[in-house]
Every structure is written in structure tokens, then in C-alpha cells.
């Protein structure tokens, strides 16, 4: 029997060719992260987002994702003049060492000035439940913070944080399942969601 759960594909094929998208990912559970990030980049490119308009940045763990997303959105707006410095407290001296678009920049390298603010940010992390309450606290605070950032800034923040109870749950959701079923790579959905939401918010502006 087929399932009723899951995402129904949009009838519209959104065009990402004019969009600029940031991916911010944690480095905890890196093998799973890599697969999710690659899935997202594949779909962004499939929808026409230019490699030079995909910026990938890493942070230590999922707990660091909200601050990074917030600063990247603010910084890209200041650099492009889309917001004034006074609007965006803390955005001065914004610099993104080690960021990459397509291929990694050398550590310490500054990003070239972008020609437009980010249309969407994808926050990617993999939280796997352990023996303590760490998992619950991080899941709760990160999901609330990411929602707040997108509502406060009006820039879509795609929730690419897996909150898995077991290693296998996380692996399956990154297309790396250990059984006969490899599972579906959710990173692909996040790439498509970024293009769809980036396109919507331009129309809704
Ligand atoms: C500390 C911690 C733990 C226990 N588990 C994870 C995890 O499963 N996934 C993840 O992304 N990060 C984890 N972290 C690290 C925290 O997110 C954070 O980086 C540290 O607490 C430092 O603020």
C-alpha cells in the first residue's frame, strides 16, 4: 500500500537562475552532513542556481547554526546595500573566512563582495539522540531560533536539521541507509525548498 505521508512535488518548476543561496552546515556527524549538503547543491544546480551564487559555510555543531544564518543574512544585506548598518546591529566588519562557492576557499580568505543578498539560507545539521538531555535542548532551541530568524528577516531559512533517535534513522534520511533500502536524501528536498521559497519571497515582496 502506498503511503500518504511526505512531500507532494510542486506543479511549478521554479527557476533558480537569479537566486543566491547560502548553505550553513554543522560538522557533527560529518559523513551524513556531506551527503545532505551534496543533495541540496545538486538540486539547487538542477533548478539553475549558479555555482557562484551558492555559498557554503560550516560551523562546529547544530547549536551554532542560528547565529551563522543570522549573520550571513545580515552581512549579505549590508555588503549589497540592501539594508543600512543601523538596521542590522552587529553586521559591521562582517567577514566569512573559509567560505566556499563550489570549491573551498583557503582558510582565512574573505568572500568577494556579493552582488545580491541571499534569497534563502539552508541550515543543515544532524542531531542524534545520546544518553543525556543534550539532544532535546539543542533540537528545541535550534528549531525555534531558525524559525525566528526567517520571520524576523523575511529571508527563508530552510530547516535542514535531522533530529534522529538512532544512527540508522539519520543515515536513511541522507540516502545512506545500511539496509537494502538506502533511503531518500532529504538534502535534495531542502535544495528544492530553497529555490521555491526564494522565488516566492521575491514575488511576495
Ligand atoms: C555537544 C553536541 C552533541 C552531544 N551532539 C551533537 C549532535 O548530535 N549534532 C550536532 O550538530 N552537534 C552536537 N553537539 C554540538 C553542539 O551542537 C555544539 O556545537 C556545542 O555544544 C558547542 O556549542
UniProtKB/TrEMBL annotation:
Pathway: Cofactor biosynthesis; riboflavin biosynthesis; riboflavin from 2-hydroxy-3-oxobutyl phosphate and 5-amino-6-(D-ribitylamino)uracil: step 1/2. The keyword Transferase applies. Its EC number is 2.5.1.78. One of its GO terms (biological process) is riboflavin biosynthetic process. Keywords: Riboflavin biosynthesis, Transferase. The keyword Transferase applies. SUPFAM superfamilies: Lumazine synthase. GO terms for molecular function: 6,7-dimethyl-8-ribityllumazine synthase activity. It catalyses: (2S)-2-hydroxy-3-oxobutyl phosphate + 5-amino-6-(D-ribitylamino)uracil = 6,7-dimethyl-8-(1-D-ribityl)lumazine + phosphate + 2 H2O + H(+). CDD domains: Lumazine_synthase-I (cd09209). One of its GO terms (cellular component) is mitochondrial intermembrane space. Belongs to the DMRL synthase family. Catalyzes the formation of 6,7-dimethyl-8-ribityllumazine by condensation of 5-amino-6-(D-ribitylamino)uracil with 3,4-dihydroxy-2-butanone 4-phosphate. This is the penultimate step in the biosynthesis of riboflavin. This is 6,7-dimethyl-8-ribityllumazine synthase. It comes from Hebeloma cylindrosporum.
